[in-house]
């Protein structure tokens, strides 16, 4: 969102270490409240965008919008989703994820990346290593199709994960 983008970009500029700041041009039209005053968001700190009690959904980047859509639908069905926006992936705020999983006992990870060797794989490993006993269901990962990324908007829409994929994954971990 624009607020996070400004705060994180300012943090990246001020950081003494090298920082790679990646953004999606598909987010350039996004609107949101951004204070005119000076503020900096800490690098490596995730943000709980929506409090919930039944399942944790972890995501980052533009694909998180699909998590919001899914959470709205699921709320009408009585499922309370906690949504965590990682905001940065290195450093990865794994403690925020672990604390949420300890509360909800279920985890769905939504990432716009191929299924092999990505951030969601690392999160899965970390949670299974550090909070396995808290899990009431296997972790669900939602990624793009394991094919080259298409250029056509129609094919791209099929290739990318969407809110229906999130709903299916949440229902799977909820055993419904």
Structure summary:
This protein is of the alpha/beta class and 176 residues long. Helix content is 39%, strand content 12%.
Structural overview:
- Keywords: Oxidoreductase, Pyruvate, Thiamine pyrophosphate.
- Its EC number is 1.2.4.1.
- This is Pyruvate dehydrogenase E1 component beta subunit.
- Helix 2 links the parallel strand 2 (55-59) and strand 3.
- The model has no long low-confidence stretch (mean pLDDT 96).
- The chain has two domains: 1-43, no CATH class; 44-173, Rossmann fold (3-Layer(aba) Sandwich).
- It has helices spanning 2-14, 64-76, 94-104, 119-131, 153-159, 163-173; strands at residues 47-50, 55-59, 81-85, 107-110, 140-142.
- The protein is α/β, with parallel strands linked by helices and 176 residues long.
- It has a five-stranded mixed sheet, sandwiched between helices.
Instruction: State the helicity in percent bands.
Output: 25-40%
Low-confidence stretches: none
Briefly note the structural class of the backbone: alpha/beta
Report the radius of gyration as a whole number of Å. 16 Å
Going by CATH, the architecture of the largest domain would be 3-Layer(aba) Sandwich
The overall pLDDT average reads: 96
Please give the CATH class of the largest domain: Alpha Beta
Tell me what portion of residues adopts beta-strand conformation: 5-15%
How would you sum up the global shape?
A: globular
The largest pleated sheet is described as: 5 strands, mixed
| Quantity of strands, as a count | 5
């Amino acid at each position: 969102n624009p607020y996070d983008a400004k705060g994180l970009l300012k943090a990246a500029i001020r950081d003494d270490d090298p920082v790679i700041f990646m953004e999606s041009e598909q987010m350039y039209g996004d609107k949101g409240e951004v204070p005119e005053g000076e503020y900096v968001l800490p690098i490596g700190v995730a943000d709980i965008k929506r409090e919930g009690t039944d399942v944790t959904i972890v995501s980052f980047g533009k694909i998180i919008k699909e998590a919001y859509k899914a959470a709205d639908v699921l709320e009408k069905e009585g499922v309370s989703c906690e949504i965590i926006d990682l905001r940065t992936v290195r450093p990865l705020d794994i403690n925020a994820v672990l604390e949420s999983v300890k509360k909800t006992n279920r985890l769905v990870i939504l990432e716009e990346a191929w299924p092999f060797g990505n951030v969601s794989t690392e999160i899965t490993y970390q949670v299974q290593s550090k909070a396995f006993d808290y899990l009431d269901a296997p972790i669900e990962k939602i990624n793009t199709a394991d094919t080259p990324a298409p250029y056509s908007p129609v094919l791209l829409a099929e290739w990318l994960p969407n809110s229906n994929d999130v709903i299916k994954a949440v229902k799977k971990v909820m055993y419904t």
